Structures are given as C-alpha cells and as structure tokens.
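User: Could you check the structure of this?
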Amino acid sequence: MLIPLGMLLILLSTAVPFFMRGNATAIKIYPYVYAAGAVLLLLLRLFTPYKGKDLRLKRLYRIDAWVPVFFCAAAFFLFYPGAEMRDWIAFTLAGAALRIFTSIAIPLRESKLKAK
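Assistant: Sure, the predicted structure tokens are below.
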C-alpha cells in the first residue's frame, strides 16, 4: 500500500520544476519530497523480497528491485552541487522505464502461472 505513495511523491516532485517554476517554496522542497519517495520505495523493496519458486518471476522482481536504486541515484543528483537537471531526469526516466516494464511483465507471468 505504501509503494503507490512513494511513486506519487516521485511523480509530483518530478513535475514541480516543469510546471511550478515561479513558486519558490515548491522549488526549494521538491528535492526533499523526491528523496523521501525514493527512500520509501527503497525500504519497501528491501523488506519485501520475492519468495516464490518461479525463476522468471524472481528475475522480474530483481529487476523491479533496481527501480528504487535508480530513483535514489536521481535524488543524489538533486542535491549534488555540480549536477544539472538532465542528470536526475535521466535516472528518473531509467527507473520509470524499468518500472513500466516490470509492472506489465510481472502480472502477465503470474497469470500464466495461475493458468497452469
């Protein structure tokens, strides 16, 4: 239940520099909100490992476990003084691409296993 909250924090924080440039308060706090979402996802993934026997599902869950790592790397670049916007956006897009892939592939594999 907390995973959507972490993803929502990251989504909202990613939108701030594009849509709320004039709001000084939002510009100051969005890196902290992004980092909170990334750390929340990381902690949730660390404490909820896959315990099944299917090797393909295990691989997909391992790929999904890398998503918060990409988001945490992006959060690092939000605070690093020499970083530019493209640095954290690149890691955010990489994490989002993996998340989209696993959010499609995991339910497909689970439905195939239930059908057997």
